[in-house]
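By convention, the token line describes the chain's fold. To illustrate:
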Amino acid sequence: MLSPAELAAWLRLTESVGPGAARRLLAMAGSPRAVFELPAAALDQALPPKQREAFNQPPEHLADLIAKAEAWRAEPGHDLMVLGDADYPPRLLATADPPLLLWLQGRRDLLGTPSLAIVGSRNPTAQGGDNARAFARALARAGYTIISGLALGVDAAAHEGALDAEGATIAVVGTGLDQVYPRRNEKLAARLLAAGGLIVSEFSLGTPITQANFPRRNRVIAGLSQGCLVVEAAVQSGSLITARLAVETGREVFAIPGSIHSPQARGCHALIRQGAKLVESAEDVLEELPPLGGFFAAVPEATETPHEQQALLEAMGFDPVSLDALMARCGWPAAELSVALLELELDGRIARLAGQLFQRRRQG
């Protein structure tokens, strides 16, 4: 455990200069405390003038941050990990920009377990959410820790799937750990911690929501994982940044294909064209990442459906479809079709989308 003096030195270093400059200084001095004893000539060599000036003056908020950090890590389950710790995750250490300091809440040991990232749209289709849960559930049962970003949509569904399987999951976030973003996922964060999961951030307590933090969060997700599964993503998507970072660090990238008419599928299709492995089941992922001491449980088949409803589901396919298109396919009167769709919606077998569209949901 870091001593108060060591903690203060780490915080001053990370709050005074950027990560690249901090690593240069650490390479020269060997420890954060020794950094602040370097001669002026060495500092002039390592830092450009503006950073040199900032380095000379401790940040105004530093004393308050040190006090908050000491109080925070005194709470059960709270911890800090620094670059150079014996249990610093080797996969993350091997990346081009490993974080100097990680704030941890939950099970620290999960950082060393076999893991897979599952990422995707914040606004997935109903099928996309179902797919994220089903893949996370199966892969967690196979022995993999599921890593995602605690965002709405696919991230939340991935964490939920792992928890439903009583598996392990890690959330990497882009704010300080004294807050949960988005607030709608506060209950999910509490459930994750109660189930023995882990929440990770490289950002100090009090760090607010800023757009620039999320690409940095994504590189940690990619760096901790052995592979990255993209469930749904638009062409301009943070999930594709995570996938690109995974490729750059030599990790496997997987993508689930979707409808050619869905904007949420275009990012996955682009990844597949660029060499990501097309996957249709968790077994496709496990071919590249074999089960590691766990057991693989296939996604259960849908329960038996009445013949008329099954015929309607088959007519729907899995792409979003309008009521008029279904009437043309089935030949059913509008009133009868509306009743059947409502029954299927209440059973959780279809979802009602914006624009009076309907979509079949994979069960499991």
